[in-house]
Amino acid sequence: MLARLVFLICLSFIILLGAVEKAQFSSASIGEQRSLLSQLARTGDGDSIQQAVDLLLTHEQPNMLTHEIETLGKQPRIVECFEQLHTEASPSGRSTNSRQAALLLLAAAGDDRSIEECINALNEPALTESAAKALKKITKKSFGTDSTKWREWYNTQSTQAHMFLDDLAEAIDHEDTIALSKSMHRAFFCKVHRSEVAELLMPLLEDDDPSVVAMAYHGLKTVGGPVATLALEDVPRPRKTVETLIDEENDLEVEVVVPGPELPTLANPSAGTDLFGIFIIVFIILLIGFILYVVIKAKKDKPAAISCKPEESQDPWGL
After folding, report:
1. pLDDT at 215 over 70
2. 17: which of 8, 73, 169, 286 lies 20 to 30 Å off by Cα?
3. Cα–Cα distance between 112 and 135 in angstroms, integer?
4. In contact, 120 and 154? CB cutoff 8 Å
5. Residue ranges in 225-301 assigned as alpha helix (H)
6. What pLDDT band is residue 310 in, cutting at 50, 70 and 90?
7. Under a CB-based contact definition with an 8 Å cutoff, are residues 94 and 22 in contact?
8. How far from 181 is each of 166, 211, 218, 235, 256, CA to CA, in Å?
């Protein structure tokens, strides 16, 4: 009972601190708000990104913070806030302002899973402009605020993408390298659901087959987007070559990415020159010191100038 009471008190204290911080942010000038958001975004760690997102979602005019939203959307750790942003972007979001901020931030991050939410928001007058702007940024298409055209385009692209995704998932399940290469190349043409392509490829980075790892890595680089970028953040880049394999079933040649040959370990070319470099540096320092010594000594030994002016007579009578 006591432990629960302590927990509730601590939780209330944390909530109170958060409320005070948000109140201070809201009362700050627009310049101070922009400075704080930019500072948090550039920090790049998960806690700072989360704090910036929380502050942005409480802003009364998020459309005035375009630059800060763009900066925040480029941070890989923004992916960790996607679930919260999708909730806020939906009709169940806390307010029109928070929904607008969430849509703009998802678009800045390039999250194509928010396309359908943006299309739905086109029919809400308060969100029409922001939703159209977000759709254009994510898809590179320009249908303006026409929700019908956007819906037709999305349905067509989505149907095709699901076919490619099913082929890719099947190739991964069957561990077929040729089928995997073919389905990956088809999946690269997806205009939507590219985040789902990335999610299918991510587990392959831990595969025991180096060729599969190489294919997954370069596949994620090609797909791009925030999910793929975060997945590759700490993954070393594998070397690759391309081999042509024969698809006997369809009598086709298929190019497959495989790991490149290991480079021979070479001796460090600078190892033999380290001592010589140190010697040169010491020599230059000593030379500079010697020159300074000579200059200073020459100034001290310089004889005083002899005055040629005749001495004045000491005779007080002028004789």
Report:
1. yes
2. 73
3. 9
4. no
5. 225-231, 274-301
6. low
7. no
8. 14, 11, 11, 21, 6
Tokens 């140190």 identify what position? 278
Residue 245 main-chain phi, psi, to 5 deg:
-110, 160
Say how far residue 310 (Cα) sits from the centre of its chain: 83
Note whether 182 and 188 are within 8 A (CB). no
Q: Which residues are CB-contacts of 153 (< 8 A; sequence separation ≥ 6)?
A: 139, 141, 143
Partners of 253 in the β-ladder: 246
What residue ranges do the domains of the chain occupy? 19-145, 155-259
Single-letter code of the amino acid located at 122: L
The distance in angstroms from the start CA to the end CA of the chain is: 118
| Rounded Cα distance, 100 and 54, in Å | 13
Asked if 38 contacts 105 with a C-beta cutoff of 8 angstroms, the reply is no
Angle CA 162–166–169, to nearest 5: 135
DSSP state letters, 174-243: HT-HHHHHHHHHHHTT-SS-HHHHHHHHGGGGG-S-HHHHHHHHHHHHHH-HHHHHHHTTTPPPPPEEEE
Query: What pairing do the DSSP bridges indicate for beta strands 240-247 and 252-259?
Result: antiparallel
Bridge partner residues of 252 (DSSP): 247
Q: What are phi and psi of 123, to 5 degrees?
A: -85, 0
DSSP 45-86: SHHHHHHHHHHHHT-S-GGG-HHHHHHHHTSGGGGGGHHHHH
CA distance 81 to 159: 28
Q: What is the distance between the alpha carbons of residues 260 and 274, in angstroms, rounded to a whole number?
A: 32
Report the 10 Å Cβ neighbour count for 103: 25
Backbone φ, ψ for residue 240 (5° rounding): -140, 155
Contact present, 52 and 37 (Cβ < 8 Å): yes
pLDDT of 234 strictly over 90: no
